[in-house]
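Readers of this paper often ask what the protein records in our data store actually look like. Nothing more is needed to write down the fold, since each code stands for a local backbone conformation. Below, we set out a record of this kind in full and without editing:
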Amino acid sequence: MIGIQAVTGLVPGLFQEDSNTGEIIWGIIRYYLKDYQGAIALYNESINLDPHDARTYQNRGIAHYKLGDKQAAIADFNQAIKINPNFADAYHQRGNTRSDLGDKQAAIADFQQAVKLYQQQGGNEKWLKIAQDRIRELQKE
């Protein structure tokens, strides 16, 4: 694995004291290595640097979800949506989590909001279709 010093040498300014970009990137790397606890720790650092970054809350929520802590995941998705009410992916992820918890109506509402935002924002056809499919699946149950 590439060390932090190697990355900072390749990308000057990546790890600046006033930026949370480095922590986000390392958190994503930890996540894809299935080190969800490590990812959460890095996202926590990122949130300490910038508590108004919706994507960090969403990323941390996904890591919590992977660890089975669905209530913590929902709390993070809620915070991401509070910061950015137009964050379609956060609605989508919260819909998945609510569905897993058996809250079908709330899940449908989240997927519907995600669909609306995906359509408004464009460029998200794959996720738009997935959200539409999830609505149909939940309505059949």
